[in-house]
Amino acid sequence: MNSKLSSRLEQTYIFFIFAFLYVPIAIIIMYSFNAAESNVVFSGFTFDWYTKLFNDDNVITALVNSLTIATISTAISTIIGTIGAFGLKRYNFKGKSVISFLVYIPIVIPEIIMGISLLVFFSILGIDFGILTLVLAHTTFCIPFVLINVKSRLSGFDLSIEEAAMDLGASKLMVFRTITLPLIFPAVVSGAMLAFALSLDDVIINILLSGPESTTLPIKIFAMLRFGQSPEINALCTVMLLTTFVVLILSQGIKLKKEK
Amino acid sequence: MGGFTMLKKRFKSISILLAASVIGLTLIGCGKSNASKTNNEKVVNVFTWANYIPDNVIKDYEKETGIKVNYSNFSTNEEMLAKLQASKGGQYDVIICADYMVQIMSKQKNLLLKPINKAAIPNYKNIDKAYLGQYYDKTNKYSVPYSLGSEMIVYNPDKVKKDIKGISDLWDPSLKGSQVLLNDPRSVIGMALTKLGYSINETNPAKLAEAKVELAKLRANVKVFDADTPMTSLINGDTTIGVMWGSQASAAIKGNPKFKIVYPKEGMQFEEDNLIMPVNAPHQKNAESFINFVLGGKASSDITTSIEYINVNTAAKKYMSQKLLNNKAVYIPKEEFNKAKHLEDVGSASKLYDSIWSEFKQR
Amino acid sequence: MKNKNNNILKNLTIGPIYFWILFFVAIPLLYIVFISFMQRGDDGSIVYIPTISNYTRMANSLYVKVFWDSIVVATITTLFTLGFGYPFAYFAIKIKKYKFIIMMLIMAPFLTNSLIRTYGWIVILSTEGMLNHVLLRIGIVKEPLKMLYSYGAVMIGMIYTMFPFMVLPLYNSIDKMDKAYIEAAKDLGASRWNTFRTVTIPLTMPGIVAGCILVFIPSVGLFFISDLMGGSNVMLIGNLIKNQFLEANDWPFGAALSIVMILLSLILILVYVKIIGKKLDTEVF
């Protein structure tokens, strides 16, 4: 009886947290169908903003650019961050404490400072601003998020499993691939998701390091909000959310199938 | 044992080679991209605030000339300056920025501006003479006016009982916790300087100290600082009076037609935005054709209809709707321009402005 | 044979991050340190005459207060996200079948733009917004509540935005914990609270530390939420630094402020990790 009550309470708590997280989202979805342009008065149901969205070349281009940059940056930062966490945890090398310290810098440093310093840096190197400079910058601030996540999962990791495998003749690489990696996988995935979200959100670095042909979504959204043209953005958010949900449901389905 | 040290050495040299080749490739890559920027590309790179050039104007230009417009954004003039310096005056063809920034750039040793070839821009004659030859570029050597904006007062007459005539009225104690001001130190400190009868470009420390004291008396009246969407808090009822730019005032009225607009009797702060060309613009001919296009009567009228700032183009008037001409936020009588206060760079006094602003922000 | 493989693996894992951090973090950082010792010229450009005036300028109650306010906001945000996030992660993992999808559902909103979501809160909390409409309708209040543009509104926004950064590391740590320890404690007669205090918390400490770091550090520099939901009424260190680059054109002072902010944040984190590590008599991070 007691445990049933407590599990009921637990589920209620989870529900309330979800409500807190999703209420603003619900507002956005609701207003994406608003016939009026304002975000205060709801006057009627319409799909107009969705049609406008799909016909808006600027927004679509910005979206594609942002997704491209986010995907590449997440991929690179996940790889570097994961194996970096592994390296920092397991090995000692010259300059280890310096690197461990420097790893935090991209998340401590205010975006504008990072943007300005990279701006000057790329300028000295003579690199044209565009997708390349954006990917380099995004990867840089994404790496710490993956690294810290993975490193914490590696803390207190039971090394005896790995040692057992090695005693049975597996090479270090194989041990990493088949034992360590699957066990730290959730940390890698969550680190990657944080990195992806951050990359999609960034404004200041995008403004400073983008080129004439590489406008990105956060800049567009920021600008449209300033002009009070949010209904189209509401529609965009709803679409992005729906896509994420579909991907999640599919992956959950695949996961459950695998476990069978 | 020997073999293993060899491998270690080899690995080290491989990684150095890898790093070197990455750097090398990048440098070659960018060298290439610089060289490939010829005048023959049918592209023009435009750089200004977002939504400052409306979509339909861009599409009209692209249709008429077959030249693709790459429209990039910045959110402040200083960002633009940092970008332009970093790219050494290259990558962009046409930039629209504020007047005081033109002044700053024209005074720099490594000039980033290219003189405008007026002969290649026939529509230059459309610009209203009253807006040419301003303090920042007396011969319009580097700049062509694009639009004009001014700061005005907007309030809700249902909630604000006092008759508001100017900036000084904002200090009234009855307006406690009711105001939205621009999140802009020059605008707000400028208000205090105006109230005291000083210039908004004051650099005298004693006078600025007076302004600081005066400003402190205003703090209790301010509820929100917002430079991006000040009309939001007015429409939402969280504030009842505010200072904002013309297009924002126009948006406020759209949100609640009962709102009133007041041109401060002391005169308004004006900012003129200009088209300029960077010194290493990759597509000069296309830049000139683009500037010429937006100076055309129809394009100019389309622009004003969309951005709702003051139009400086004489040829545009015949295209503008009556509604726009009657919009108090957009169509401002010339007498107001004569009372205009122009924002200029204050040089090293900006340290003082910054500390006054930081102190003012803290309750 | 083993040694050779060992070294290749070691270089392979350390190499990329070594190179990347050195190139894209250390060098730009050196540049920032360099200009923090330079001066601002009259026309806003950087004058290359060394000085420590940018640092001494900070020893002013005005600027100290800005740092202090930012740290307070970051600390409160961290405490609240931890307080609400830990039970959430814990209870979610208990629901074994759906724990993965619950975590993904936490992340899903954050793949949309944070600016939009913050504007969503403004719609809810403003004087003529949703919440007031509902409250007035039901009759709980006679007049609309002024919820927006207050410190409380800023905290709601901060906690909302930083929540997944705390919850995800916690989830990883709690999930990994071997439940056998808890069973053992129960068998030995420990109460639920004692088990939690002496077994669960220490075992999940790496996750707690990681979560606190990932929330605290970015929160110190975050200012757009204070601007949007607090009406920009408070000057935080992020605002101050941005102003140096985008209003005052004082890059040297902005650089100096950044260096101090970075050092301060890192020292606080270091102290925190060391204290926790000492208490638990183990390496926590």
How does this structure look, described?
The complex is a heterotrimer of chains A (260), B (363) and C (285). Chain A has 260 residues and is mainly α. Chain A has helices at residues 2-31, 48-55, 57-90, 96-102, 105-108, 111-125, 131-154, 159-167, 172-201, 204-209, 217-226, 230-259. Chain A has a domain at 58-223: MetI-like fold (Orthogonal Bundle), CATH 1.10.3720.10. Chain A contains twelve helices and no strands. The longest helix of chain B is centred in the first third of the chain and has 35 residues, at 2-36. Chain B folds into two domains: 43-148 and 272-331, 3-Layer(aba) Sandwich (D-Maltodextrin-Binding Protein, domain 2), CATH 3.40.190.10; 149-269 and 342-361, D-Maltodextrin-Binding Protein, domain 2 (3-Layer(aba) Sandwich). In chain B, strand 1 (43-48), helix 2 (55-65) and strand 2 form a beta-alpha-beta unit. With 363 residues, chain B is of the alpha/beta class. Chain B has 13 helices and eleven strands. Chain C contains twelve helices and two strands, in the order H-E-E-H-H-H-H-H-H-H-H-H-H-H. Chain C starts with a helix and ends in a 5-residue tail after the last helix. Chain C has helices spanning 2-36, 53-56, 61-94, 99-107, 114-125, 130-138, 151-176, 179-187, 192-221, 224-229, 237-246, 251-280, and strands at residues 39-40, 46-47. Chain C has 285 residues and is mostly helical. In chain C, a hairpin with a 5-residue loop joins strand 1 (39-40) and strand 2. Chain C has a single domain (62-280), classed as MetI-like fold, CATH 1.10.3720. Chain C is globular, with a radius of gyration of 23 Å. Chain C is 75% helix and 1% strand. Chains in contact: A-B, A-C, B-C. The interface between A and C is large, with 97 and 97 residues.
